[in-house]
Request: fold
Amino acid sequence: MAALLARDRARLAGVHRDLVRVVERARLAVPFIVTEGLRSRERQARLVAIGASRTMDSRHVTGHAVDLAYWLDDGDGAVEQGEIRWDWSLYEQLGAAMKAAAKALGVPIVWGGDWTSFRDGPHFELDRRAYP
Ligand SMILES: [Zn+2]
Reply:
């Protein structure tokens, strides 16, 4: 398993350092790409307007959240050669890897896949109780 690629690192710009550490560690266990980190209020407002997000109180706006996508590469590790997969079982693997990394680092996180009203498998955020 590989470390994060340059494109992933660019997408983590502005994301809280502790969450980046969790992402980096989890990437050693499960293959994924970073699809989004810090989000502007303008973009968040657009996402709410089209129904892709439910709240302007998103943790993305403050740099406390990331979205990850399971990445099935063709074996050579080059991010250009492979595909994003949305199979739920793969997000359970991703969620488990992120939780294990968070626990090892002592960084409490919340996985959107555990939400009951709106399950969001790609979404991970720092726990508001520890990171208001
Ligand atoms: Zn998200």
About this structure: The longest helix spans residues 88-105. The beta strands are 32-36, 65-73, 82-85, 109-111, 123-126.
